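$ run holo --ligand "adenosine-5'-diphosphate" --emit tokens
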Amino acid sequence: MALVVQKYGGTSMGSIERIRNVAKRVAKTYDAGNDMMVVVSAMSGETNKLVALANEVCEFPDNREYDVLVASGEQVSIALLAMCLKSMGYKAKSYHGWQVPIITDSAFSKARIEEIPDTKVRADLKDGTIVIVAGFQGIDKAGNVTTLGRGGSDTSAVALAAAMKADVCEIYTDVDGVYTTDPNICEDARKIDKVSYDEMLELASLGAKVLQIRSVEFAKKYNVDVHVRSSFNDNQGTMVTKEDKDMEAVLVSGIAYDKNEAKIAVMGVPDKPGIAAKILSALSDANISVDMIVQNVSGGDLTDFTFTVTKADFKKALAITKEVATEIKATGVTADESISKVSIVGVGMRSHAGVATKMFQTLAQEGINIQMISTSEIKVSVVIDAKYTELAVRVLHEAFGLSGK
Ligand code: ADP
Ligand code: ASP
Ligand code: MG
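-- output --
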């Protein structure tokens, strides 16, 4: 008998009819003789509605209460799925994150899972019960409800699979697997059969929201093979797994984009030691992570210091940056929310020169201006005007020979 962990995302749980479809799929795997744990997301659109409500109440909603609010979407879907399975004659039981318990740190809205004691759920499984767990949520040591960041149900599922030493971990979503780029904006995108943890980490961190980045970190750390597949058919999906030799042969394996960042620039910063640290530490004290950073000389003893943050952190980051800018006597602060980051990713890049050049030339041919650049061993990212995102993704997909045609 195997232990199977399945996770169903928001679209898969998006209506009563779809929840019935999920229940049938769960029942089928259970009937085949497996122990089952199912992690579910809120019904599609529900978490966005809750976030909008919080933002209507005030500009900077209280962090603790924000998590209490946004965790509620998953409470609805676990109960509906459990009811559905029970009405079909199965033993099923729903659990909030805190009931399992899924223990996290106290970083509200971006908490990290620390530990998952399994005594309670093991007893249910032994008794033949299908265990249904709310994704996205946990509890900190002080007993507060926490959430794991948008898309966090993937992480709940992989962390549970690791903690329970599950035999199979399947992430069911609304596309057939991980593609060379988002199949919803590029019709030539091709499904990838196998992708390494490192490539998937890059793709996820660069915006391919098909898996939340922390779920891939867990998978890599605990060696969990993750099968990403569709809840609407029985097609084989994508295995996210250890790197093997043929993976190295591919130069660029995927293109990712992220419209979820904004750019802040501090102009006319005195060019002396400690200034960058001052700006960045003020942000990190507020638990805001900075992504790309560029510093360039703007003449004389002054430089411009530009960085990006997520749109969710943007307002707060801008307010903090303006305060620091006044303190360090910078000449001004500018901000731009209509940017996007487009990236090419591939483990094959390690051993090939010229990849970045080809990327920049391809964008130049389309008249797309590059505002910022960052590179690692296996990726190149550029920040461009958001209105060119889809165009950039398509021309790069074509230029690097990723097209399925
Ligand atoms: P779920 O609600 O099931 O968690 P998400 O919306 O979070 O689903 O993630 C699935 C979506 O990820 C797809 O509908 C697709 O638009 C998007 N996506 C972005 N990049 C990729 C990629 N490289 N491969 C597959 N899907 C991608
Ligand atoms: N419901 C949460 C979100 O929309 C978590 C998830 O879907 O994974 O971000
Ligand atoms: Mg998701």
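-- notes --
Residues 9, 151, 154, 209 surround magnesium ion (ligand 3) (CB under 6 Å).
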